[in-house]
Amino acid sequence: MAQLATAWAIFQGLLLEALPFLLIGVGIASLARWLAPGGAWLRQLPAHPLLGPLTGAALGFALPACECGNVPVARRLLAGGAPVGTALGFLFAAPVLNPIVLASTWAAFPNQPWLLAARPGAALLLAVLLATVLRLLPEAELLDPVLLEERRLSQPLAQVGLLERRSGLVGAIGAKVQPVQVARPPLQELLQHGSREFLDLAALLVLGCAIAATVQTLLPRNWLLAVGGAPTISVLSLMLLAVVVSVCSSVDAFLALGFAAQVTPGALLAFLVLGPVVDLKLLGLFRVLFKPKAIALTSAAAAVVVLVLGQWVNLLLL
To answer: Could you list the residue ranges that cross the membrane (predicted)?
Structure first.
């Protein structure tokens, strides 16, 4: 009974913490759909392998949403025809590079200037590397089928042929035809679309929070913190803790402050960098963006990169 009460309390905390940011993200995505219904400006974003992810990451400075709120915004970018690398750079870097998270990190660790620079720098590097890896997959193997169809409908005919749009029309791929101008949606339609998107994402969020709360209850944190002084195992344990705890990136620095003295510097950085990219509640939200293969690849690549970064920091600072 005590474990059930603990799991319920953790579940409520995670859900109440994430829902406002999810609502903010859906609101930003709906506003973008209303201001630029055709998504023409999205297709003007750079598609360069490096400049694209960096541009997407830079968008995070203007958006006060954590990782949950960034998912609907990233989906809007992809559905509107933004380059994949740019959208992925935003998805993976913005949870750390947004103003709220930068301010909370500074407030939690004002006496550790290396961490104030290392966290956004590591998050930016991780985002670029993940975007590079995922771009190796064809879009048909990377993106969720529903999102892929929305994306193809938003592409100019010079880029995607009519046959690829599943419209039943016959057209030559590469034809120099201008895309049809899309009218601004009525407010009622915009609210209905936003409400459906919020409810769909909220259902996935509830499932992710339930899984995270259950795992946290069955796997006490002190087990993972007990090996905090070992250079390699500490990094691995804090990576696992970041995935299990699934706390929002806007407050994870204050949580990390509670055990910062018990763990190595590399483990602390690993906790603050991996959590905003891969955790149990976020993996469920990724289902509206990626196919399962791409989610698995994202998780594995992020774990490898963060482990290497944590080890490197420990070699420099220990």
So the answer is: 7-35, 47-65, 77-97, 117-137, 198-219, 225-247, 254-274, 294-317
